[in-house]
Design a protein that fits this description.
This protein is α+β, with helices and mostly antiparallel strands. It contains 6 helices and 15 strands. It has helices spanning about 5-15, 25-30, 35-45, 155-170, 185-195, 215-230, and strands at about 55-65, 65-80, 80-85, 115-120, 130, 140, 150, 200-205, 210-215, 240-255, 260-270, 275-280, 300-305, 310-315, 325-330. The strands form 3 sheets. It has a 9-stranded mixed beta sheet. A 4-stranded antiparallel beta sheet has the order 10-11-12-13. A two-stranded antiparallel sheet has the order 14-15.
C-alpha cells in the first residue's frame, strides 16, 4: 500500500482551483506529490496507524455553525474518517466560533510555522449525505450541529467521484445490522404516509448511512419561487429552469495601489425569459433532525434579476476553466418603454 495508480490519482487531484486564494500552509500541501503526500497524511493527519488514504479533493466548505463563512479546504477521505484541512485564516473569520475551534496554538501566529486546522468527521459518526441540485454540492451530516459540513464542489464530476469513493469506503465498515422492523397496524402505517409532503429520494447504504437525492418537487418549488420574483405575469406551467449552477459574482474594486476583485458566491438560475442571481443557504436545508427552529434566512434570496430581452451582449474571457462571463444589459430604467412616449424629450 498504496498502489501506484492510487498515488498517481491522488497526485493529479491535488491541485488548488486557480481562482481561489489559500494560505501558505495549504499551498505547501498542494505542492506534495505521490509518496510524499501519503507520508504527510500518515505523519500529520491520520489518527489511526492502519488507515488508508483513498481520495483527495479540493473544495470550498461551509459549516453549520458558521453558514456565511465559505473557506477553502483540502478534503481527505480515508478508511476511517473524512478530514477537512482548513485554511488557517478561518479561525479568525468569525468571533462567534471561539467555542467551535480550539485556539491553544494561537501563539504560533507570528513565527515561520504555518498552522492549519484539521476538522475530523469519523465515518462511524456519519448519518446522512444530502446531494444538492444537479450535483453542484453535497452536505455531510453527523450526530450534532458541530458535525454538519457542506462541500461546494461547483462541479458534478467531483461530487459524483467523492460520493462513489465514500460509498466504497463505507462498505468496509463493520456495523451491527439494523434491528428487525416492528410490524405496524394498518392505521399507523396509513397515517405516517399521509403527510401531504413528498420525501426526497433516499438510498440507505449497507452501513446505514442515508444518501438523499433531490426529487422533482425541489425544481418545482424553485420554479414557483422564481416566478414570484418576476415582475411580468408569468404562466407558471410554461416556466422552465434551463440552468442551475453555483458560480461566483466578481466585484471589482479600483484601488490606488492595484485593482482587486472579490468573488461572491451566487446561485445562477436561467429561465427562458430571465437571468437570476440568488444568495442560497447551502447548509441549513433540509433541516437536521435536532434543529429546534427554522433557519434565520430563507433558502433562496434574490440578489439580482434581469430580462433576457434586455441582454445586449455577452463577453467571454479566453482563460481556461473557470470561465469568466460578463453579461451586459441595456440600462433601461423603466421596463415598459411605451410609458415614456408621452414625455416631451425635446423640452427644457
Amino acid at each position: 500500500y498504496p498502489s501506484e495508480f492510487l498515488m498517481q490519482k491522488i497526485t493529479e487531484d491535488n491541485q488548488i482551483p486557480v481562482h481561489l486564494h489559500v494560505s501558505v500552509s495549504l499551498q505547501y500541501v498542494a505542492g506534495l506529490k505521490g509518496r510524499a503526500l501519503v507520508e504527510f497524511f500518515h505523519s500529520n493527519i491520520a489518527e489511526v496507524e492502519n488507515e488508508e488514504l483513498r481520495h483527495l479533493m479540493w473544495s470550498s466548505v461551509l459549516f453549520y455553525k458558521t453558514p456565511t463563512v465559505e473557506v477553502m479546504a483540502c478534503v481527505l477521505l480515508s478508511t476511517k474518517a473524512i478530514y477537512f484541512l482548513l485554511d488557517d485564516s478561518f479561525i479568525h473569520a468569525d468571533e462567534h466560533q471561539s467555542d467551535f475551534w480550539n485556539k491553544e496554538n494561537s501563539d504560533c501566529e507570528n513565527s515561520s510555522f504555518h498552522l492549519s486546522c484539521c476538522f475530523v468527521l469519523k465515518l462511524n459518526d456519519l448519518q446522512s449525505v444530502n446531494v444538492g441540485l444537479f450535483d453542484q454540492y453535497f452536505r455531510i451530516t453527523g450526530h450534532s450541529a458541530d458535525h454538519i459540513v457542506t462541500c461546494l464542489t461547483r462541479d458534478s464530476y467531483n461530487t459524483h467521484t467523492f460520493i462513489q469513493q465514500l460509498m466504497a469506503v463505507l462498505s468496509l465498515l463493520a456495523r451491527t445490522p439494523s434491528p428487525e422492523p416492528v410490524d405496524k397496524d394498518f392505521y399507523s402505517e396509513f397515517g405516517s404516509k399521509n403527510t401531504g409532503k413528498m420525501e426526497n429520494y433516499e438510498l440507505i447504504h449497507s452501513s446505514r448511512v442515508k444518501f438523499i437525492y433531490p426529487n422533482e418537487e425541489e425544481i418545482g418549488d424553485l420554479a414557483f419561487l422564481v416566478a414570484e420574483k418576476m415582475d411580468s405575469l408569468t404562466n407558471l406551467p410554461s416556466l422552465n429552469i434551463l440552468l442551475y449552477v453555483l458560480a461566483f459574482q466578481v466585484n471589482h474594486f479600483e484601488g490606488s495601489a492595484q485593482n482587486t476583485s472579490s468573488l461572491q458566491p451566487k446561485t445562477l438560475i436561467l429561465t427562458s425569459s430571465d437571468l437570476f442571481l440568488f444568495d442560497e443557504d447551502y447548509i441549513s436545508y433540509p433541516l437536521p433532525e435536532f434543529a429546534k427552529e427554522p433557519p434565520k434566512r430563507d433558502k433562496y434570496q434574490l440578489a439580482d434579476g434581469r430580462r433576457i430581452r434586455d441582454l445586449d451582449r455577452v463577453l467571454m474571457g479566453y482563460q481556461t476553466y473557470p470561465q469568466a462571463l460578463t453579461f451586459v444589459f441595456d440600462d433601461v430604467q423603466n421596463q415598459d418603454l411605451m410609458q415614456n412616449l408621452t414625455l416631451d424629450h425635446f423640452g427644457e
